[in-house]
Amino acid sequence: MTNEIVARVQELRAAIAEHNERYYNLDAPVVSDAQYDDLVIELRELEEKYPDLKTPDSPTFTVGATPTGQFQTVEHRIPMMSLDNAFNKTELLNWHDRVLRFGEISQVELNLELKIDGLAISLLYVNGKYFRGATRGNGRVGEDVTSNVKTVKAIPKKLEGLTDFANEVEVRGEIYLPIQAFEDINIQREADGLPLFANPRNSAAGSLRQKNPKITASRPLSFWSYQLGHVSGIEMPKSHSESLDWLESKGFPVERHRKVVRTIDEALAYIGEIEKKRHDLNFEIDGVVLKVNDLELQNKIGATSHAPRWAIAYKFPPEERQTLLKEIKVSVGKTGRITPFAQLDPVRVSGSLVSKASLHNYGQIVEKDLRPGDTVIIRKAGDVIPEVVKPILELRPKGLKAFDFPKFCPSCQSELVRFQDVADIYCPNSKCPDQLIQRLAYFCSRTALDIEGLSEKRLEILIENHLLNDVADLYSLDSEKIKQIRGFGDKGITTILDLIEKSKSSPFSRVLVGLTIPHVGPVVAGSVAARYKTFEEIMAATIEELQEIDGIGEIVAESIFKFFRNEGNVDVIERLKLAGLGVMAIEDAPIVDPSLAGVLEGKTFVVTGTLDKYKREEAESLLIALGAKVTSSVSKNTTALIAGAKPGASKISGAEKHGIPIVDESGFEALISTGNLDF
What we know:
By secondary structure, the chain is of the alpha+beta class. Helix content is 36%, strand content 19%. The protein has 25 helices and 22 strands. Helix 1 runs antiparallel to helix 2 (33-49). The two termini are 40 Å apart.
């Protein structure tokens, strides 16, 4: 195993984690489903080939993304797992063979459903009344969006016949935005001068994550139910199809194209029929889900760490269309990376009109030999991000010139640079206006400091009026000067400044995310913040010391090292410190006895349920401060399970199965005050 392989695995994990964050939490993906799937497949293949590189927190073993903190969290009693994918007939047949083998059977009945491209949601009903709505999150913990879900008219608020105090019913499904509603919203946004939504899935997810439920209520969201989760006080149906019948009888909408088949050939025929009519539907789908129908057999077949073995999603191949590549333009990102994109003759692909497609980098243009004036094939895998597949050379006009990549930044006119052996091209000017807008927008995003109200347009206006030159300037904004700018009212200014003030108490990891350090997203930032509690500690760290942190390799460590030695960055950090960032979060952090530092080195803990005196993050930070490793799932290598009130049932059963000690809050306090493992 070479250093290049290790570096590639780390690079893939960082990229997948970043894409998960953009897809699940920001509702703003920048790659197509197909490109994302390729990254996961490559990582999984490398981990299979080199088992020593496997880690429990790898994206191949986890689901979704960690909740942003914007909403209260909810621990799912039964994990909301993701589905493995099949992309062709061979992969589907292989899955079917595995089902027969694990089930020790010769034939299996399958339930087929459309794979709705929306936002997975868990609905809990207590005594027959709607009680709570939660997103999938990372599969273990989701976000509490109860008030927002309540505005979705298709979701019943009361279930007839379930009034006994013992009744608890969890219903899982997909919240989506109908295609016509999506198009109507974009027409209105265009008229209002607002940026258009990318696609129905992200529009639905963004609508549901609004802090103000009235905004959610203004969007015509709908819902399809597809599964029963945790239930008590009622008799569970024997099959999945019967459970869908039961849901329908209680007023839940269930998609009408569902079908039960007895052979894999029948399933393949059904998939072919649905693929032909997918664009006749008024909602987006990107495939068909196949599930073993017998629920008892589902339990026997079991699951991996992230997906059930008894179900799989057959993903439709990307739909391709041809159109004219009118022009190649470039945009400037927050790190100065120059991203080319194609201006196309509008064409309908996968149910929506496409006029622009990302080209990713200069190397892709050269490799595909794309030229303005070409007729090109485009596709939109997963109905998310359009991409140019290739030019149709037979239709290329004679004498068409190759694209001449610009030598100067379109924003600041600085000469562009290309680093050796890297396909990307950068603007080296850290004061470039477009870079600054993107950095500020990212700093204010939900992933970082969560300062609502400062859109790219507003940030651009503040920059043009010389009120912002970097992210630290946000904390010295003068309300009187802002009032002089057209479009900023007193109430809006007060709200923005209050949110800026509130952001000063953000966790240290969020501040690190907001600094836009190359290769450092939420996952890496969290790992760094767990190791180093202050800016000064990070600045003093060597590349070798940074590499000692789980998940950080040479490339990421070198990037962090260089960032904290750049004079301009150091100046910004000093002014952020003066404003109070990275200080309040540190002072409020749990403190352990210095003499116990490292006492739990080599030990692994899992925290579940609600503790009286500590937030879960605080409990985990205390364990980490003592040298322990904290994971999200119980395994045979877990040292102990710290369990508060209402612990996760799967974690308790996992601990009991492996004979792992279950420690209550008093035991936890004894542990962190003494380091004693005598449970």
